[in-house]
Amino acid sequence: MTIDTGEGAIDHPIAPTSPKALTSGLARARGRAGLWFVMPWIVGFLLWYAIPMVASLWFSFTDFDLVSNDPTEFIWFDNWRRLVTDPAVRQSAWVTIKFGALALPVAVLFPMALAYLLVTRSLKARETFRALFFMPSIIPFVAAVLIFGGIMNGQIGWVNKMLSVVGINGPSWFTNEFWVYPSLVFIGLWGVGNAMIIFIASMNSVPSSLYDAARIDGASEWQMFRHVTFPVITPIIFYNLVIALIGIFNYFLVPFVLNNGSGDPNGSTLFYALYFFRQGFQFFDMGYAATLAWALFIVAVAITGLLFWSAKYWVHYEFES
Amino acid sequence: MRLWKSFAVVVALMMIIAACGGSGGSGDTTTTSGDTGTTEDQGAGATSTTEDSGGSSGDKTTVRWFIGLGAGGQPEQEAAQREVVEQFNSSQDEIELVIEIVENDVAYETLATEIASGNAPDIIGPVGRDGSNEYAGLYLDIESYVADVDTSMWEEAAIENQRESDGTLVGLPFASYPSVLYYNRDLFDEAGLPYPPSEYGSDGTATYGEGTEWEGPWDYDKVTEIAQILSVDGNGVDATDPSFDRSTTVQWGFHWQWTTRIFQNGSYWGVGYPMADDGTADIPAVWEDEWNWWHGAIWDLGISPSQEQMDAVGDNVFQTGNLAMAATHLWYTCCIADPDNGITGDFWDLAALPANNGAVTANMHADTFRILASTEVPDEAFQVMYYLLTDAALPLLQAYGGAPADPSLTADYLAGLDERYPQGVNWQVALDGAGFADDPSHEAAVPGWGEYKVRLAELESAILSDPNLDVNAGIADLESDLTIIFEENAE
């Protein structure tokens, strides 16, 4: 790495040089020092992530039961065979997919739209609005879910009371199989502040020269967004998409807090992660729960990998340099 | 190479630190009084080091008592439990009793995790059949210990009732919680209705409103009839009026107060066992009748609250004063008065449960303490358990709201309840309910108890949430699923 100090360029002392230099005694000593600094993380990773993951993979081939008197036995692929034939797995996966189909676009597009509004120069008090929209993110989500449970209660909730003012008989948001998904998505909007802030940062980084050029060419506001803003922020869209996708795979907290993990109404909120929790921590069937967890991990990695593969067709990194 | 040595040293140090920092227990090298759970007894407070056997802490042997599987998790019960522990610890210098109070919502997972990690407590309880079924086969057989203590204060039948199906004696009688009907006197007065019957007839049946225009057999038809008068919507219209709007109900006539689990309320209509001799599921017909009735009571008549309505007012509906009748157990006395929030709970009394098909079933819950077979200090654990069942029984029973298994404690126990609820509650009708207890118990074990309960909870949820539910179709699906659960978990 070369730094221009104004008095001629100098080589930065930690800049990597030739491969030969990397194997020198000095470089090795520096490497060791660096390793000491990252050692806490490495030890933490091994103890709290790597070893438990390997252990859970092992459990998935056993009949490990937390409260069984029988010794744990290695049962090869029995749990995996059970996973393939278990109708509850199919049902919970389908519930997750249905919810994801609705929640994923909203989780990406809503904060993006919000960010676009909040970077508009003509908007007064932009900073105030940004703070207001971000503030919900700092409230514990469990508390927010409980509050929404009251706000959207079909009997006494404010939402239905407001709807009744305009003559609309509001539905039972959380006990109706159709309305429960939009309701969950609506609750999810409470936490879009983080994604919104990232989008704002990325939109602010779009070179103004690109907008100037577009304006000179007579581009409309929409055309500027479509052909200037959007391509530049595609890495951020990609990032938020991946995060949202993983969040949907692991979707647990809201249905667990709202319905105590019951899957109400009629199994329509029995998400895959809830089913995993039920097997592991209600039925204490840790072997099968580990199998469910690994199956989720494999599917999540595969779909995320697919997203990364697709990135070369629609994500534009050339602006980042 | 030196790098790897350094790494190995760091890892070893980390693991030693982690091991030293782990929670103590009977089998660990270090024990801190009450170091697990949401609340703990800090009375002893000291960290003590174990010696040869797992539970020894200095001169004292540590015995861990796990609370939360049944009663005991309510804040108002904690003080009584702490006092019992302090009294026991100060009464002798051999054993240090340590309590772990865990919220009921997470108690099962917490205990299972402790058992699996080799950090199990010595004593659990109070726990009823439901909680016990979760850990069947893990309890210590106390037969040999019982031979050395006085058990004359308990009925022989009550002791025998503590045996598991294989004959193992896993507990001694402690508390029974018969079912009874709680009713709101103010709401009956307001509606001009006679109170429900205050005593059972010789066969259990009773008559409602003797000598009045309301006179008739005290059964669920009569309950339905008067519950409609006692249910009122937001416009002040009662449920006998065609214009009654159940979506705005502000007062309900009847509810299964904290007995909404369908194997519980089904059993109030008649005893049964959900598994046939051939191992397939066979829901008792009388349970099916009740489930259909309950669904109709919520959605057609509007006399009982739906899930959404419970979410709106809180699930302790009777405490709100807007519920006329609640069928539940004696343990519910725990949670009507709430002095901290200005709820004196003086508006109610107890009455006989209604009959169904000419017979009364008053579901019974019976709690006791159990010792886990994994304990390394069984002698001391039994000594503590016996103390809890005898010397400490009265204060604990008063905190839990359980009727004593030892009849000599009944008078003192009722005096304690009268102190708390001075309106002159008819406790006798609750005690008489024991004569109509469900046998087999609605909590009789079935294979795959946890899965069984979850599957039943799904139908319960549908009854509470789905106005269009075809209950009979739901029952057919339930039986089909339960048969699979029973087969998969059959020994």
Please report which band the strand proportion of chain A falls in: under 5%, 5-15%, 15-25%, 25-35%, 35-45% or over 45%: under 5%
CA radius of gyration of chain A: 25 Å
Give helix and strand order of chain A, one letter per element, not per position: EEHHHHHHHHHHHHHH
| Cα distance spanning the termini of chain A | 16 Å
In CATH, what is the homologous superfamily of the largest domain in chain A? MetI-like
Shape of chain B: globular
Number of helices of chain B: 17
Distance between the termini of chain B: 54 Å
What is the 3D form of chain A?
flat
- CATH fold assignment of the largest domain in chain B: D-Maltodextrin-Binding Protein, domain 2
Share of residues in strands of chain B: 5-15%
Structure description:
The complex is a heterodimer of chains A (321) and B (491). Chain A is mainly α and 321 residues long. Chain A folds into two domains: 2-59, no CATH class; 78-314, MetI-like (MetI-like fold). Helices cover 66% and strands 2% of the residues of chain A. Chain A is built from 14 helices and two strands; from the N terminus they run ββαααααααααααααα. Chain A has a two-stranded antiparallel ribbon with strand order 1-2. The two termini of chain A are 16 Å apart. Chain B folds into two domains: 28-176 and 366-416, Periplasmic binding protein-like II (D-Maltodextrin-Binding Protein, domain 2, 3-Layer(aba) Sandwich), CATH 3.40.190.10; 180-364 and 439-489, D-Maltodextrin-Binding Protein, domain 2. Chain B has 17 helices and 15 strands. In chain B, strands 2, 4, 5, 6, 7, 8, 11, 12, 13, 14 and 15 form an eleven-stranded mixed sheet that branches. Chain B has a two-stranded antiparallel sheet with strand order 1-3. A two-stranded antiparallel sheet of chain B has the order 9-10. Chains A and B meet through α2 and α13 of A and α1, α3, α11 and α16 of B.
